[in-house]
């Protein structure tokens, strides 16, 4: 944050400690203007609490942690984060006190899950796409779209990691792909390709080689073949294909490329529960496959989607233990 340093008057018993804390942060190169403002808010709260001490406990801090009616979630999160840093400082200088660990969670938007009919219609548009400018490069890109979207839908991949697949990370004998880019926390993971999909990948590599006259570093080279196809390009192609389907006009929430990944997860879980398999056993494996940190993140895909309620209500026994139920309208 640019601009002049701002100082506030602190009046609570914590005033001196707050001033020292801010000086410490600024000596380390931080402007600490917004943070000083949030600390001045807590200072006024603490001065009016009537406690008269410097001992911060959960009980006397809890009211300050609640989100205010006029406060955005971002400001709320920032305000609590600043208090957390200050309480850590107090503990470090020898004053044991409560450290807020309240997590400000941002509600995830529910993604549209594609029906079988919508999937068929969407891929029909993707497969019949003909670029207006039918030069060699555009034809090559058009052929690549067919395979790229199938990888996302059939394997539940993220768009970013699909665009950046390297040919060197594909094991054609084992039928696997090592995903390195786009995964959270830069962790590698291995996904297995069905035989039909592996054949399409091999054909794509050969087609690209025929068009480019050399083998690209990337499975999906962009218009500049030294770089992989861009996420923006794929987003545009998905949107252009979707609006041509008969479902686009009546769909309440427009799907995105990420909807293909959500659809993969929901359909996989539906299949397992219809087969009578225990989700407690299967979810950790699916989480690993998807590159999630925990299976709770994976279960959100399923539980938050209204289409899945028919199966959840009749066969699911673990949902309430994992995430609160989302009410249907």
Structure, described:
The protein has 329 residues and is mainly alpha-helical. The protein folds into 3 domains: 78 residues; 127 residues, Intergrase catalytic core (hpI Integrase, Chain A, Orthogonal Bundle), CATH 1.10.443; 65 residues. Helices cover 53% and strands 3% of the residues. A 3-stranded antiparallel beta sheet has the order 1-2-3, with no helix packed on it. A hairpin with a 4-residue loop joins strand 1 and strand 2. Helix 2 crosses helix 4. The two termini are 43 Å apart. The C terminus is likely disordered.
Provide keyphrases for this structure.
14 helices; hpI Integrase, Chain A; 329 residues; elongated; mainly alpha; 3-stranded antiparallel sheet; 3 strands
Summed up:
The chain is built from 14 helices and three strands. With 329 residues, it is mainly alpha-helical.
Query: What is the number of E strands?
Result: 3
Strand order of the largest sheet: 1-2-3
Q: How many distinct helices?
A: 14
CATH topology of the largest domain: hpI Integrase, Chain A
Average pLDDT over all residues:
83
Question: What is the CATH class designation of the largest domain?
Answer: Mainly Alpha
Radius of gyration in whole Å, from Cα? 26 Å
The description of the largest β-sheet is:
3 strands, antiparallel
Shape label: elongated
- Quaternary organisation of the protein chains: single chain
């Amino acid at each position: 944050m640019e601009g002049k340093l701002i100082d506030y008057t602190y009046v609570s018993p914590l005033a001196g400690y707050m001033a020292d804390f801010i000086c410490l942060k600024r000596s380390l190169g931080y402007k600490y203007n917004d943070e000083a403002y949030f600390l001045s808010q807590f200072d006024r709260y603490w001065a009016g609490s009537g406690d008269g001490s410097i001992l911060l406990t959960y009980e006397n801090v809890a009211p300050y942690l609640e989100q205010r009616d006029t406060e955005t979630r971002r400001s709320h999160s920032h305000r609590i984060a600043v208090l957390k840093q200050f309480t850590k400082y107090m503990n470090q200088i020898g004053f044991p006190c409560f450290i807020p660990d309240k997590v400000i969670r941002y509600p995830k938007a529910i993604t549209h899950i594609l029906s079988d009919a919508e999937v068929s219609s969407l891929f029909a548009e993707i497969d019949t796409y003909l670029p207006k400018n039918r030069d060699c490069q555009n034809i090559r890109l058009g052929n690549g779209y067919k395979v790229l979207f199938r990888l996302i839908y059939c394997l539940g991949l993220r768009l970013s990691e699909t665009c950046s697949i390297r040919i060197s990370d594909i094991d054609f004998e084992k039928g696997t792909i090592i995903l390195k880019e786009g995964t959270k926390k830069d962790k590698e993971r291995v996904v297995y390709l069905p035989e039909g999909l592996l054949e399409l990948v091999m054909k794509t590599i050969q087609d690209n080689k025929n068009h480019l006259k050399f083998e690209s570093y990337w499975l999906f080279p962009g218009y500049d073949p030294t770089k992989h196809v861009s996420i923006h390009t794929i987003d545009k192609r998905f949107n252009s294909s979707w609006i041509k389907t008969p479902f686009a006009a009546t769909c309440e929430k427009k799907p995105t490329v990420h909807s293909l990944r959500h659809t993969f997860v929901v359909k996989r879980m539906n299949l397992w529960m219809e087969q009578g398999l225990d989700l407690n056993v299967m979810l950790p494996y699916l989480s690993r496959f998807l590159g999630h940190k925990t299976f709770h993140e994976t279960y959100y895909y399923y539980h938050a989607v209204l289409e899945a309620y028919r199966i959840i209500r009749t066969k699911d026994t673990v949902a309430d233990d994992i995430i609160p139920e989302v009410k249907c309208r």
